[in-house]
Write a structure and sequence with these properties.
Elements (H helix, E strand, L loop, with lengths): L2 H12 L4 E6 L3 H8 L4 E3 L15 E2 L3 H6 L2 E5 L2 E3 L4 E5 L5 H6 L3 E7 L3 E2 L2 H13 L5 E5 L3 E2 L6 E2 L6 E8 L2
Parallel strand pairs: 1-12, 2-3, 2-4, 4-7, 5-8, 7-12
Antiparallel strand pairs: 5-6, 6-9, 10-11
């Protein structure tokens, strides 16, 4: 990963009206606070030095908390710079539902997990599948559909997405 890859990722996200904030791990809580709309739910992030425990985000939410949440905070296992695509994996911590059900998804991805193109993303995903982590969603921008006539946002997932890219140490 290079700084150029993260810059391309940010640019591609902007094309889909997705804001991207680069932040050092030590400043994660402050950055999250600026984009959080409460109530908020989250799944364990698994990123060293980054935690939801002090951010007022409910982890391991009940179905009711998930339904009532305005924001879901979940890790993206990878970002694909070419299209601004997030790879969200399903896990026991609830990453998939937390990323899909609330109207706003705050995706957290490490800068080193941003790959330049789809070919690199698929190679990464193949390694994940080989390791038994074989369920993933590729999401590009907010959920949208034109099945109902005009373009409708949030029909099958979040209406808004914000990405926090964590600078690696």
């Amino acid at each position: 990963m290079t700084t150029d890859t993260v810059a391309q990722f940010s640019s591609s996200l902007a094309e889909h009206d997705v804001e991207c904030t680069r932040v050092p791990a030590a400043e994660f809580a402050e950055a999250l606070e600026t984009v959080l709309e409460r109530p908020a739910v989250g799944a364990p992030l698994g990123i060293s030095g980054v935690s939801l425990s002090d951010c007022g985000v409910t982890t391991s939410p009940t179905p009711r908390q998930l339904e009532d949440a305005e924001t879901g905070v979940a890790r993206a296992g990878a970002g694909i710079a070419e299209y601004g695509t997030l790879v969200v994996q399903s896990d026991a911590g609830g990453t998939e539902p937390v990323s899909l059900y609330p109207p706003t998804h705050v995706a957290v991805v490490r800068a080193s997990d941003v790959v330049p193109d789809v070919r690199s993303g698929l190679a990464w995903l193949a390694e994940e599948f080989d390791a038994g982590r074989d369920t993933a969603i590729l999401a590009t921008g907010p959920s949208a559909t034109a099945d109902m006539g005009g373009l409708v946002f949030g029909a099958h997932g979040p209406k808004r997405v914000h990405v926090l890219v964590i600078s690696d140490r």
